Amino acid sequence: MSKPLIPAQRRERIQEYLTIHQIARSVDLCELLETSEATVRRDLEWLEQKGILERTHGGAILSQRMIFEQEYQQRAQHYPEEKKRIGELAASLIEDGDIVFINSGTTATQVLQHIRRDSRITVFTNNVSAIADIGDPGFHYYLTGGEFQSRSNSLAGRFALDNLGLVYANKVILGVDGVSLKHGCTVPTDPEAEVVRRMIDRTKGQVIIAADHSKWGVVSNFQVANINEVDKLITDEGFSKSAVEDLAEHSIEVLMTQSVEV
């Protein structure tokens, strides 16, 4: 029989496991550490207090901080095929007669690009990136106005907020930089956060998050919604099953894309 690990050793091994896997189930940690579920729970509580992880139903997820906003073109290179399929799936949820808010970001741009051109809808967005790519959309399409944000190719500020305050939407589809049970949905800059919060406030219907699996467990600088404000999450097949179960406990429906066989 091996000698029991002391707390510092157990916690170090938990961190090593999460660094590799990002997500851990309590049952797997019990087996790894050869200890009880109660001991693992105490270790996870201690590590959560240190900001190293976030406890979930039946386990934990590695806490990941995203402090700085990357340039738009840099972000566009991350998971492009997944974002394309997410955009297509999210766009399919838009129905004739809808008034929809869509924000900036690479995944949100994919949503805009996949809306049917013959849709009888109205879209309000602060997303400048989509203008050149969409051309004549065929549906009613409004830019919020506002100050240009070069890093994100978006519009923000007082003009954008005031114009959004004149509209009520029945759906909002949002790209975010982080999704967390504890910290909700987050973005890196305050100007974008203000716009997104205004969009949510002016939506009398579903709040839909479009985010690839790498956003799960990430916490950025500014919260735009707590997890209980979200109705649906559109993500890719890389999203973990345990995360789906965690979100279901908060009455959030998770829709996942299907990978394309080559």
Task: Give your account of this protein's structure.
The chain is α/β, with parallel strands linked by helices and 262 residues long. Helices cover 36% and strands 26% of the residues. The chain is built from ten helices and 17 strands. The strands form five sheets. Strands 7-6-5-10-13-16-17 form a seven-stranded parallel sheet, sandwiched between helices. Strands 1-3-2 form a three-stranded antiparallel sheet. Helix 6 links the parallel strand 5 and strand 6. The model has no long low-confidence stretch (mean pLDDT 89).
Short description:
This protein has 262 residues and is of the alpha/beta class. Helices cover 36% and strands 26% of the residues.
